[in-house]
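Appendix B, record 7
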Amino acid sequence: MSSRALRKLRGNDLDNLNIPEDISDGEADSVNPACQKRNASKKKKANVGNLFDLLGEEEGNQSDDENQSDKEPDQPEPEPVQPAPKKKRKKKKKKNKEQEKNDIEVIEGEDEIDAGLREVNQLLDNANIGEANFSTTSEALPCCKALLSVEHKNLNPDTELKRIFGSRVIREEGMRRRHQGRRRQKSTWLATPQDSWPPIGRTGLSMRMIEQRNGCQFFVFEHSHSYQKVQFQFYDAVESLNPQNIGDIISMHPYHIDAMIQLGEVFRMNEDMNMAAQLIERSMYAMEMAFHPLFNLATGTCRLEYKYRENRCLYLALFKHIASLGQRGCNRTALEFCKLLLSLDPDNDPLCALLMIDFYAVRATDYEFLIRLYNEWEAHRNLSQLPNFAFSLALAYFLQAEGGDTTKADKQLQDSLLMFPGVLNPLLDKCGVQADSSASHAFFTQPEYCDPVALKQLEALYAGRCHVCWKVPDVLEWLETNVKVVLDLVQAGDTRAQTYKTKRLSRYKGTPRNIYRHILISEIPSATATLPRDVASTVLSYDPLPPVDSVDAYTRPARPNQAQVDGSAMSMFLRSLLPNFNPNEPVPEGAVGGDGQPLRQGVGALMDAMRDLLNNIQMVDHHGDRQEGGEEQAEEEDLQEWD
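Structure tokens (predicted):
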């Protein structure tokens, strides 16, 4: 090292620089011309923490010394100092990578310290190269990701709307919304908070991890004591059958989940889709704010079991949000939410997301995902037994071919028509296509009368939802061609026709509860018409058809006898119409523990009694043979009869 580097390292102590004591300050400066420049400029602090910083600075100072000597030729030249031997580097020869790692280049006139520094720099450079290579090769390919993993950027419908309408339109709409109120900085995945929403604060909703099993984490929502009190008020508001009471709860507690879901259904029935969608998004935003830190939506390994009453709100909100996204044309976003809904409980699938995920995959042109889902889940879920997967898979093969070889798609469609011939006529009716003699063949019309009811429900559900995918002229022409091929196979005595008929009659004997729940929430008219009367009359939108093994963290406290609280004549009269009326028995509590079964039974029995009463009154009016002069006597007889 030079004396300048040592001076900066050890300070301005001249004794440490091995300079003779008889040399004055001026002579010392004349020995080293760089001292003149350093004395003229402002002195820097000499505390150096890293020895490596001196290397680059020393080279810069040497260049400055050369420039200074060129600019000041009139100054007396200092005494010649023995220059340090120049570093002569040998020419590098081509070596193998192993030799470059092990061999250290030898430089003439280089001491051990400089050699060590150079070796450290070389090792650091090699480490940086290794990090760069690792960053490029460690990126996971899309095919290696989990099947139900979620891309959080695809959960935002604005991303898809930008592709459809352009970023300028969406940007202007976003600026207009921001000018209407304050701007929010919180970033969320499920829903973007709007400026018109009230501040969320503490809602009393939280999440707790239950256990870890088979590489998955199981969570459950929890209600605080204050949230439970509001929940009981919500049950009373639902029993009153007055939507204004539910609105009053939201005005006092703007982020109560069940109240927002129930009131959103009221707005939807009144065809106010915008307000209904906002309430659903607010409910998802409130639940996302209560997520556990380990609850990651993107991994696909976080589970929320539907049997817990507190977890069902997220399922219902996601399902209704998917329907809203589909109406807005955001099919790619709807597909991502379907994957999220299915990942919460893929084994039980409480809302039957498998019955609609194929539709959004085809609409979003994500054929690879649909084919992969079928190939990976067919072994343990028997997806080929679902009409929607059988036909959507064939359609995905056809659209993926893009006018090329459709042999694989033809085989899949022919097999689907042989297995589910009852899908053809409802599908053509929904498409508005006049069926020819091929579609009116007995092979396609007979299943309407002999197939099980459960299979008819699935077929009607698929035709009512997915008929828009078959309206394309090329698809209809392809369907017509394969229908004729299937008829030729049936007339030729293909054994698959009889084998599949036996399977249809032996299976689909009963409809599972989750399929009932899916049809009820979807509200597709052709499928809803096939529901039993007791299922179709469900009035509780916040918890339709709760599971049999429902688990409630808390129960509703017993209420006082309603007959003692409200003894009005009209109330007693309406209650007396019930077949099991007992004046000393308390009024049946609706939605005890959140299930709502007594409320549905009571309302149904009350409506039946009122219907019978009106029918009896009409019969008296039509068949009464009273004389004109005996009206007063008839009135007295009626009063005695009611008494």
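Remarks on this record: The chain has a mean pLDDT of 76. The first helix runs from residue 3 to 10.
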